[in-house]
Amino acid sequence: MAFKEITDQNFATEILGSDKPAVLDFTASWCQPCKKIRKSLEELAPAYEGRVVIGELNVEHNQKIATEYGVISLPQVMLFKGGQRIETIHGVVPKEKLAAKIDSLLT
């Protein structure tokens, strides 16, 4: 499952307008801890294919949404459901914790 590339331009459609829960990974090329979160999400993604949108937003190129949602540190993962932010996960967390948070979106 490929991550959806989320931009300032498609955020409203792909994340807020999705009929599925969404997981949005805020990242940057220089952020080493972000790579750990990305790896965990890549490993988890197949289990959620067709049920959850998993996107990645590069804050270097898409500052509008990052600013709007108060992203001041990376890595940061936001969970959305029904067009609303449900939760924000700050920093590197174990893959199992990410899975539990994603599972909570599906209930």
Strand order of the largest sheet: 1-3-2-4-5
Q: How does the overall form come out from the CA principal axes?
A: globular
The total tally of domains equals 1
Distance between the termini: 22 Å
Main sheet makeup: 5 strands, mixed
CATH architecture: 3-Layer(aba) Sandwich
Give start-end ranges of low-pLDDT stretches: none
Fraction of residues in helices?
25-40%
SS summary, helix count: 4
Q: Given the helix and strand composition, which structural class is it?
A: alpha/beta
Which features characterize this protein?
107 residues; alpha/beta; Glutaredoxin; five-stranded mixed beta sheet; globular
What does it look like?
The structure is a single chain. The protein has 107 residues and is α/β, with parallel strands linked by helices. It has a single domain (4-105), classed as Glutaredoxin. Helices cover 37% and strands 26% of the residues. It has 4 helices and 5 strands. The protein has helices spanning 11-16, 32-48, 63-68, 95-105; strands at residues 4-6, 22-27, 53-58, 76-81, 84-90. It has a 5-stranded mixed beta sheet. The radius of gyration is 12 Å and the shape is globular. The mean pLDDT is 95.
